[in-house]
Amino acid sequence: MLCLRLTLLLVLVVSLGAAFPHGGAPRKGCSLFKYKQVIFHEMKAVEKMQKEFRSIRRLDRSCNTRLLDRQWTSAHLSVPDRVLLVQAELNFTIAMLQRPARPSFARTRQRPLAFLAQAREDLQGCVAPSHQPSGELRQWLQNLQLAMQTLTQNTSCLEDYAIRHLFEVLGDLSCAARQEKCP
């Protein structure tokens, strides 16, 4: 069942490769203004969730998620590529946060999960079928797919990676909301 979910998620991530109009800017229905600065309360909720997660489980040193590390930042991508990156990151992170968990962690993750789900929904207005991702982004999307395929026996590694990199995802979301330069 989990393998099927991950496979469906991978198909979704890969299919995001064609997501913007020819002009390169998000469609008119795309409003990401509220994500230019991630709300303080949301950052605190994510921090609390990460702390709870670390108290439940220690990092498995056998996990090799370096495949997902990037040598570039979202600030170097075009606006359409930034949104594609954030969509893939949100889909991946949400899938990992929806995994069964201890009751205390399940409660702690509710607010960040709701925020991320809302952001993913807001990004849907930005998707159109003509943009092809840059080489850097395409390679990272392929690495994400490969990591999810190779780590299906140990999804706890993927879950750990997703939770540890949540602030990076929030930063990428904020960067995607700025339709010009990012810091």
Order of helices and strands: HHHHHHHH
Quantity of strands, as a count = 0
Number of helices: 8
How many discrete structural domains? Answer: 1
Biggest β-sheet: count, sense, barrel?
none
User: What structural class do you assign from the helix and strand content?
Assistant: mainly alpha
CATH architecture descriptor name: Up-down Bundle
Helical proportion, percent range: 55-70%
What name goes with the CATH superfamily? Answer: Interferon lambda
Mean pLDDT reading: 77
Strand-residue fraction?
A: under 5%
Extract low-pLDDT stretches.
Answer: 1-27
Radius of gyration over all CA atoms, rounded:
16 Å
CATH class: Mainly Alpha
Distance between the termini: 41 Å
Shape estimate: globular
Subcellular location: Secreted
Keywords: Antiviral defense, Cytokine, Secreted, Signal
GO molecular function: cytokine activity
Pfam families: IL28A
Describe this structure in words.
This protein is mainly α and 183 residues long. The chain has a single domain, classed as Interferon lambda (Growth Hormone, Chain: A). Helix content is 59%, strand content 0%. The protein contains eight helices and no strands. The protein has helices spanning 2-15, 40-56, 79-97, 103-108, 110-123, 135-150, 155-164, 166-177. α3 runs antiparallel to α8. Residues 1-19 form the signal peptide.
Question: Nutshell version of this structure?
Answer:
This protein has about 180 residues and is mainly α. Helices cover about 60% and strands about 0% of the residues.
